[in-house]
Each structure stands twice: as C-alpha cells, then as structure tokens.
C-alpha cells in the first residue's frame, strides 16, 4: 500500500487511474488496515494523503457507493449493542434499544415549507469541512449522523468529515468509521470537552467553510446548500438550520416550528421563543432567514477565516455549556450576524440530562463558562447576570485578559448596543423586576468583591 501510494503521488496523471483503483480495492478489502494505521502514524499519513489530497479532490461515484456498501455496519454496531435486561437509558441518556432498531440510512419526511423546494442555489458553492465532536457516543447515533450527511449532501460540497473523538473509552468507535467516504478521525489524548475539541477539529480542517454538528443528529433533504449560499454572500454571517426534534424515547423525527428564534434570560439560560406577531407580519416569504440574538450552538456553519478572525472559541471554558452565548455575543458585537434558515433542517436528539461526567460538576462548569461570558462581553450589565444567578458570585472563572484584549483588538461594540439593536426584548421584558433587585443588591456588598460592588451606571440606563 505504501509503495503504490508513493507511486501514485509521483506518476503522470495518465497512469494514476489504474494505481488509484488498486489502492482503493486494497483499502476496502483489508479488514485489519485500521489496526495497522493505528500502530504506525506514517501509514495514517499515507492513507490520508491518498483519500483526501487527490489531485481532483474527489472520489468517483462508483468508489463512493462501493465504500458505503462494503462498510461492515453490522460488525460496527454489534460490538457495543444494548443487552436485554439492561436499562437502555443508562449509557447515553436516550433509548439505546430503540436507536439500534432504526436503520442508519432511514428515510425522513421533508419538513421544509414547500416553497424551499423551488429555490435554486449557486452551482459554485464552497465545499465545507464538517466537524463532529463526541465523547462515548452511542455507535448507532454516531453512524446515523455520518450516514445522513453522506446520503443527503451533494458529494462536491463535502470536503471532509472530521470526527473528533474526545478521548472516548473505545477509540475504535471513531477509527472504524474512516472506511466511509470522506471521513477521517482525530483523537484527543485526554478529555478536553466540546469547546476545545471543536477548535482542534477546526484547526485541522482544510475547507474554507466550517460546519459544526453534534454526534446525535440526522440532516434532512437539501440541508447544506441554503447554509453555504448565505455564507458565500456574506462571510460574516453565522448560519444555523431549523433544529427538528428526534424523540429520545422513540426516535421519531418531529418537525419543529419555523417561527422560532433563540433567546435567553438574564441568568444566561437558553430558550426557544416564538417570533412576535410584528416579526411574523414582516416575513412575507416563509423561506426568508430569521435573525436570531443567539444560536443553540450545536449546529452551525461559519466561514473559517471569520471563525479564526473572531478568536475561535474561548478555550478556557470547560467541557460544555455557555459557549453558545459567548460566540453569539462575540459575533454580533464584533461585526457579524446570526441567522436561522427555515430551508435547512437538521434533526437532533434532545436529552433530559448529560450521560457523561463533568469533572467540576455540571452546575459549577456552567457557572464558570457563563461568568467568563458575562465578564468579557456584558459590560456593566453583568450585574443583571449576578442578580439572576447569585450562586455565580465569588466563583472562579479563570484569566480573561486574553479575551478582553481580543475584544479591544476587534473593536467590538458594547453590550448596550447589543440590547438596543439585536435583543431589545430582553431589557423591555424584565426591566422593572430586575432594576428593583439591582438597586437593592448594590447596597448589600458585604459578601461581594469590589468589582461586583461597582455602581453600574450602564445598568441604570435600562
């Protein structure tokens, strides 16, 4: 394999076809190749070079179908199946038994408005690197996520699918999937959490556009072109699909309303909120993008240069939680915008609890991450956050000097600008109650730090 791959890279294009065919057949017919690649990193480089850096950047349709057909799905799933007598919710906080009953390539109802099917997109949309991070994900949902992308995305728009394995117990969860088209695996040597794992995936991506997905999703018909079209038109946009619901008990795929946008309260608790009657009245086209103050964070597309320019993610945040607030505030305040596109639909398994462990505890991790967000991006309005979430006062949130310097370097707008121009509903809806609380708390400084006790002139301007 090594000899032929080197020959392929050095021989004239006219002779590459026969060598490529031999390499392809060897790859898909060698069951122990993953083990060999694991043991010798140089071989990993060779196979990556062959499959992802080909002169035309593509796999032929025949090779694509051959790889899908030859993938040993039964063997992949059987290794980690639910066992009768076990609680099917214990490992993953959703019904593992039901998930394993559903085919990895099941058909989905097109949940878009019929108007979406009539829209035509540019033929030269930029391809994307699709980044999926996971830690001890159920094999059935991980495979279904990848297969749905492969089955419902134009081939030329997938540059690569990067699976970032955040130090799962079984590294073969990821490694066995590299026999699927376009898939490659990156494994963390230690647990890093979603935020740092996404940055690692983005740093290894080759395409000019990044697409972030969770590992328990199913993309729906024509989900990607609408997202790429908006990025092509304006690289400072960050765009998200409408997130349909995959029931955690039955795995039924349920359409979500297209009249929703992201919202939150002063405690930085995310919520979906209906568009107001006035906002709905202004929407003359059901396919029109929806401006949103905040994205849910699990599924979105962003220009890679813009992502890097904005400072990626705050990598001092831990595991999961609050990162969607930080990146949403940063995008809006630093010159970008956030949109939800009704003509893009992706289903997501929503769980009632996390199946994995937070080293510092779920609540403490969320407080640390959201406090970092409040201290860097909310200016004097952070007092409202502390009023709504008093447990955050006094909790450590690490060094934020680098993020403050980034904000200054990017010449980002104030949080007051954000409230006035992006999310006026937040201050209007809770003005009276919160102001009473703030005025009272200003005089209760015995247990507050000096910074917390600073009289907030901006807060008074609400």
Précis, in short:
With 462 residues, this protein is of the alpha/beta class. It has 21 helices and twelve strands. It has helices at 2-10, 16-29, 33-39, 41-52, 61-70, 73-78, 96-101, 139-152, 172-175, 194-204, 224-233, 277-282, 304-309, 323-333, 362-377, 382-388, 401-410, 415-421, 424-442, 450-453, 457-460, and strands at 128-134, 158-165, 183-187, 209-213, 217-219, 237-246, 253-254, 260-264, 270-274, 290-291, 300-303, 337-349.
Main pleated sheet: 10 strands, mixed
Extended strand count: 12
Shape estimate: globular
Question: What's the CATH architecture of the domain at 61-349?
Answer: Alpha-Beta Complex
- Uncertain runs: 34-57, 443-452, 454-461
Content-based structural category: alpha/beta
Q: How much helical structure, as a percent, in the residues? A: 40-55%
Count up the helices.
Answer: 21
What does this structure look like?
With 462 residues, the protein is of the alpha/beta class. The protein has a domain at 61-349: Spore Coat Polysaccharide Biosynthesis Protein SpsA, Chain A (Alpha-Beta Complex), CATH 3.90.550.10. The chain has 21 helices and twelve strands. Strand 8 and strand 9 form a beta hairpin. The radius of gyration is 24 Å and the shape is globular. Pfam families: Glycos_transf_2. Its cofactor is Mn(2+).
Helix/strand layout:
Layout (H helix, E strand, L loop, with lengths): L1 H9 L5 H14 L3 H7 L1 H12 L8 H10 L2 H6 L17 H6 L26 E7 L4 H14 L5 E8 L6 H4 L7 E5 L6 H11 L4 E5 L3 E3 L4 H10 L3 E10 L6 E2 L5 E5 L5 E5 L2 H6 L7 E2 L8 E4 H6 L13 H11 L3 E13 L12 H16 L4 H7 L12 H10 L4 H7 L2 H19 L7 H4 L3 H4 L2
């Amino acid at each position: 394999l090594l000899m032929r791959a080197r020959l392929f890279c050095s021989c004239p294009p006219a002779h590459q076809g026969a060598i490529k065919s031999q390499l392809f057949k060897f790859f898909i017919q060698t069951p122990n190749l993953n083990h060999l690649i694991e043991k010798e990193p140089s071989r990993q480089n060779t196979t990556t070079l062959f499959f992802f850096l080909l002169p035309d950047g593509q796999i032929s349709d025949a090779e694509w179908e051959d790889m899908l057909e030859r993938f040993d799905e039964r063997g992949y799933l059987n290794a980690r199946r639910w066992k009768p007598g076990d609680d099917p919710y214990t490992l993953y906080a959703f019904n593992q038994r039901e998930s394993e009953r559903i085919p990895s390539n099941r058909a989905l109802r097109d949940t878009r408005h019929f108007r979406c099917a009539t829209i035509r997109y540019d033929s030269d949309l930029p391809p994307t690197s699709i980044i999926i991070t996971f830690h001890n994900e159920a094999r059935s949902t991980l495979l279904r996520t990848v297969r749905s992308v492969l089955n419902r995305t134009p081939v030329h728009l997938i540059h690569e699918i990067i699976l970032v394995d955040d130090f799962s117990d079984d590294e073969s969860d990821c490694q066995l999937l590299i026999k699927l088209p376009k898939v490659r695996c990156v494994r963390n040597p230690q647990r890093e959490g979603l935020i740092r794992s996404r940055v690692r995936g983005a740093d290894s991506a080759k395409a000019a556009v990044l697409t972030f997905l969770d590992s328990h999703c199913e993309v729906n018909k024509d989900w990607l072109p609408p997202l790429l079209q908006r990025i092509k038109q304006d690289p400072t946009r960050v765009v998200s699909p409408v997130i349909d619901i995959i029931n955690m008990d039955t795995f039924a795929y349920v359409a979500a309303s297209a009249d929703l946008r992201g919202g939150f309260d002063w405690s930085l608790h995310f919520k979906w909120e209906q568009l107001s009657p006035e906002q709905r009245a202004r929407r003359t086209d059901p396919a029109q993008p929806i401006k949103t103050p905040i994205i849910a964070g699990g599924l979105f597309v962003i220009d890679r240069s813009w992502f890097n320019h904005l400072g990626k993610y705050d990598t001092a945040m831990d595991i999961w939680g609050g990162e969607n607030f930080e990146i949403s505030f940063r995008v809006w305040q630093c010159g970008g915008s956030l949109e939800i596109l009704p003509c893009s639909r992706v289903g997501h398994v929503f769980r009632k609890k996390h199946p994995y462990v937070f080293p510092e505890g779920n609540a403490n991790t969320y407080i640390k991450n959201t406090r970092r967000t409040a201290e860097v991006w909310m200016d004097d309005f952070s007092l409202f956050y502390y009023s709504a979430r008093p447990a955050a006062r006094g909790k450590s949130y690490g060094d934020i000097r680098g993020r403050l310097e980034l904000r200054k370097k990017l010449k980002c707008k104030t949080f007051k600008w954000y409230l006035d121009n992006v999310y006026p509903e937040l201050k209007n809806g809770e003005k009276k109650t919160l102001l009473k609380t703030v005025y009272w708390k200003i005089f209760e400084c015995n247990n507050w730090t000096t910074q917390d006790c600073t009289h907030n002139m901006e807060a008074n301007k609400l």
